[in-house]
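hey so u asked for the seq, here:
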Amino acid sequence: MKHYLDLYDLSFEDKKDLCQYCSPRFHSWHQKNEQDDDYLLKWIPIMIMAQEDVPKAIHTYLLKPPSKICFEDPESLKIEIYKSFAGEIPVISTNNVHDFEEMLKKIIYHREDIQHIEEIGASFAYGENNRFILLSGKPYSHISARQTEFTETEWAEKSMIIRREHECTHYYTKLHYGTSKNHIHDELIADFNGMMAAMNKYSAEYFLKFMGLSDDSDGMSGRLKVYTQNLSSTAVDVISYLLIQCAQQLEQWSQTNRCLHMSVEERTKILCQQDLFDLSLGIMKEEIF
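ran it, structure tokens below
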């Protein structure tokens, strides 16, 4: 830890903020309660109606009157109960940006004025009585297919998978650790699971593109700005350096036989046990049970 902090001329406040920001985020793991899935009973009539008419199911069960959505592409709307590593979770998806943003405003936030809505590609609703994931067909982290090794169609498919597994990871940490925040540690784990599911590998290069830290980005144009907005510019420089090291170490770890033979839950538990300093040094505590 001292090594990283000594690389920069940091104030006492910056050092304090960085130590707090990089400290372990996830603490005691707790077993899922058997009643945690009771909310799924409410989705039975939704799923029955969705088999015939998805827009009608959304209007009947998920929208509060007098809200209405004029869907531009009802054919691309899908509702499924997805069997994730975190458990079963309802997933609503669409390839149409307008339809996604309308559902975001009227189902998730219940208001029309959402700042920077164009930057949002997915949302995870978690409440006592209901929870579900809303996915868009936007390119993941606003990275175009030409910035990847994939065709437009391939990248659209992989973006949806990354996004789905990313949100399922947030669901898992909320369920078992009681927390899920816009924080670099959360995002490292969620993107790790997303890429492993979509591409069968973890790419440090892609992750840094997602964050706005690659050679073809302008530094703070990616998601990093969202997760470090309360830190000083000098502290953000330290986090950026730290993040590059974390991504490179995670890529190496992802290629080991140990990692490749783990379940998604085992990987997630291990990554939750680390702090950002340990991750950047490749120190992996593996007490997963």
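The mean pLDDT is 92. The longest strand covers residues 78-84.
lmk if thats what u needed
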